Amino acid sequence: MLTALLMGKTVELGKVVVDMKYISGGVCAAKGFKAAGVHCGIRKNKSKKDLALIISEKKCAAACVYTQNLVKGAPITVTKKNVGDGFAQAVICNSGNANTCNANGVEIAEKMCELVEEYTGIKASDVICASTGVIGQPLDITPIKENMKKLTEALGENNSADAANAIMTTDTELKEVAVEFTVGGKTCRMGGIAKGSGMIHPNMATMLVFITTDCAVTKEMLDKAVKADVKDTFNMISVDGDTSTNDMLSVMANGMAQNPEINSENGDFDIFCKAFNAVTTALCKAIAKDGEGASKLLECIVSGAKDIENARIIAKSVICSSLVKAAMFGSDANWGRVLCAIGYSGADVDINKVDVSFASRKGEIRVCKNGAGVEFSEDKAKEILLEPEIEIKVCLGDGDAKATAYGCDLTYEYVKINGDYRT
Is 84 left (phi over 0), alpha (psi -120 to 50) or beta? Predict the structure, then answer.
């Protein structure tokens, strides 16, 4: 579970000062939201929750982004239709079965939404539906139907962790976070839960992420905030180079904080975006750190780029490199692999200006300057790289643009997990 890393931290956005702190509560931190998670029987392990529900007391402005894999889970088809008008009020999600590549997949996803209406009164057309797990296996609606009463009876204002647990597959850590911030003199809250450990190499979305807020914001501005943010957060994660068929990020805003509704790109919108980024960045790091078999969180921090696009390309190329990931697993300061990844990235860069450093809580060490190696202590480098969180710092010397990508090391355990994932 994510801890309170920024308690009371003040952040400046130009002339706007944002007082924001991390709080507990996850998707239930915001007013008017309840959640639940139960075991319904999709998964064989009876101790593992596999069905989650999140509901809002009031109808919400909603925004989603989805996988761009041509093979898409049936729940995405149904959710796109339901959220097409920019509104939603509930999320239902199962784990253990992706409901993908099934002849009756859309029918099953629609039935899940209908069950939410039957047991909560929330219209099926206002339900976000998601599934995660094994691809290509039929999803039986029976265990979901038979446990909807138990699921709805379990709904509570303190049950975000149950919902977060129910959407996990190969995850080893529960992922939830929440922040409190002020807009228009009103205290607002925003929280999220996520699952993601393998098949993580997204484009325009990632894994499963559900975010809730009581901040009042129009559907248009919410959509704008979400689409801008994912470019530097969820689109910058890579665990294994595989893009899932069921990736989805959904956000619901019910306005119950009663702040003046955000309907334009003003100071309040800047504050909202900063709060949203605080939630998404924390979830990104949690997902990358919990990559399948991972022992280390990697961050590639690129600075001095000509423009933001070149910075993003390079940061992600380094994070995606299997050779870099393997070197980090072995705590080997093999900086040549970093330069190699920059060289084939396709970015516009002068390799003769590139500096590379490795950093962790044990310190920082420069290993490359102006595209060439420099003398450094291998013992000190090993000490730095043995830490569980590593920064790969790349300075391009070409401009002022920056970008950060998130990933993890490549271990023997990754192959073991995916060698027998289905069986």
Answer: alpha
